[in-house]
Amino acid sequence: MIDIGANLTSKSFRDDLPSVIDRAAAAGVDTLVVTGTSLAGSHAAADLAAQPASAALYATAGIHPHHAVEATGDWLAQLRAVAGRTRVVALGECGLDFNRNYSPQADQIRCFRAQLELAAELRLPVFLHERDAHDTFIAILREHRPSLRDAVVHCFTGARAHLDAYLSLDLHVGITGWICDERRGRDLVALAPAIPARRLMIETDAPYLLPRNMPSPPRDRRNEPAFLRYVLDAVAAARREDPATTAAATTATARAFFAL
Ligand SMILES: [Zn+2]
Q1: What is the Cα–Cα distance from 30 to 16, expressed in whole angstroms?
Q2: Are 12 and 38 in contact (CB under 8 A)?
Q3: I need a surface site. Which of 2, 15, 179, 246 has the fewest CB within 10 A?
Q4: 16 CA to middle of ligand 1, Å?
Q5: From the CA of 59, how far away is ligand 1's center (Å)?
Q6: 10 Å Cβ neighbour count for 33?
Q7: In this structure, are residues 42 and 79 in contact, taking their beta carbons and an 8 Å threshold?
Q8: Is the pTM of this model over 0.85?
Q9: How far is the centre of ligand 1, averaged over its atoms, from the C-alpha of 23 (Å)?
């Protein structure tokens, strides 16, 4: 299996990252895509991906909407440089987050558009984040879609109309442990069967979103890539598929998406 979204440069993994990667590999998660969310974080993700490990590591390079306010000066040239490093396989995480608004919306929009243009220039797929900003997000994507190779809306938690809009733009959809939440994930369980296998991928978003279907969750509530199995089980159950079928299909889709 491939975890397409793992925040392994998070400080919650500072003390035991090698064992976290070993446990992922032992659990059948043999490929991890480390999410970059800032210039420094993207360099750290690329550094990590360049080191030998028990799982195959790749990285994304991008500025998360929370960090859009930091995108000043020659940030775009700097991001272009990180994106060109070896084992960087996607641009992002980028997008819009009007839920928290940690960065002003005008900065988020400017930073998002510039990254879509960079992805088109570099012919890289895009790792997208959207929260409470669907209308603006889809309008911007609709403009840029013709020049983009591929793009995945990671941690999709939206409504049917949102999913339809994404699929109509031929975007990919990433599902996290949100689907394992018996209350919050109910809508997602209903929507999961509507995503074509060639557009569906799975992710942990570790250390966040610990799957709630774990029989014995870790006491510190930290999520890690080894727990991708629980996301897989919930997605497979929602789609009424055998987990092995879902695993094979999402892995093949991720390999094609990131050109691994
Ligand atoms: Zn995100």
Answers
A1: 18
A2: no
A3: 15
A4: 23
A5: 15
A6: 30
A7: yes
A8: yes
A9: 23
